[in-house]
Give the backbone structure.
Amino acid sequence: MKTILKKLKHYLEDKDERNLLINVLLAFGVKGISMVISLYSMPLYIKYFENDDVLGLWYTILSLLNWILICDLGLGNGLRNRLTTALATGNSQKAKNYISSTYAALTVLILPVTLLGGVLLQFVDLNRFLNIDSTLISPRTLGIATTILFVGICLNFVLKTINVIIYAVQKSSLNNILYLITSVIPLIFIFLFKGKNVEQNLIALTVVHVLALNLPPLLASLILFKNKLLRSCTPSLKHCTKQTALDVLTFGLRFFLAQIFFMLLINTNEILLTKIFGSDTVVDYSIYYKLFTFVGSLFMLALTPIWSKVTKDLAQKRYQRIRKTNRFLYLLAVLAAVAEFTLVPFLQLAINIWLKEDAITVHLPTALIFAFYGSMYIFNVVLTTIANGMGDLRTQIVFFGIASLLKLPTVLLLDSFTDHWAIVVLYNGAALLLFCCVQLVWVERKLKNLTKETDDSVLEPSPAKPSQKDGFTQ
């Protein structure tokens, strides 16, 4: 026990490690509350809409429109790595240039998208595209709701930059507080408000969702840029440069490709389920998904500050520290995967307690498929966090790109053998398994080579320097 306390004390003496631990602990506290709220929100949403088709429609619309948030061509993630490196090397002027140029580039990028998309949405048959009967939701109501959400998410496209900046300054727990506020606002609304019909409920919720999405980052930006933490980095037009924007964009494009391929693989589930199996299956999928990705979400939460820490350690050539962190994460991932399968025998009980009269009957093969997928998702989070921090996205781009292209034909082929929607999730799990095997080898080899190069440079004898006694400068 004394040895453990001694090691913990030694660990906490390091400012960076202490800051990381504080952020992780605070994040767990805040995110824990947020996840409980998320689980509690499902029965509230079911009662709010009183129709599985409309609830499935809501989830599908959000899934589709959230694609806008990744279409920043990687500027957000590119800024995260570049800004972390600038701050780690003490270059506040460069940090200010990166922030200013990124805000300007994102604004220029999203304005035409917002205007063009808002117009085009008025000419799309959304009922047919989203497979929802016009007797449930009229084309006019669906068009209004979708347009409101579209404009709101476009606005968040720029405002969410503050989240990236918060990660870069190693204060990730602040982001979890913002996300908590965002999730609480709609929950309070659907608990208190009930419209006259399902169409009125849909319109009202879209407005509240947009406000909940944008008010927290807007207020955070106004407060933090006046605070000493970010005062020196406050964005301004005179610090916007084309060269800096291109630097962030060029670097960020790799993140963009990896991210969009990953979303094509993972975030198209609701769309495929709606189009192939019907929108009502999205509700069952969401119930399984929320439970089996609970541990994975916790893992992503814990690893959020590690991304920027890896970038900082890399800039300061502390490779052994990265390897030590990585080994610990592998162990945690194994334990988390065991927890995924341990949930299966208790799943029906958990759903009964959670959803009460709205509980579904657990299908054992489906539960096992989700446990497998949840395990692979956890290992994916670990490996991509390290790779993202190191700024090397080649493995992700190749594997996620191929997997996303093969998803639709493979699902259609599997559907001819078994008419069950869980095959969509099974495909995702298998794709992540293959990726994790290759990414694991790459990460370990890369860190080993970097460590060896550092060791070799230390062992290499320095040229002998004449002393002052010999008449030369020492």
In short: Residues 15-455 form one domain. The chain has a mean pLDDT of 82.
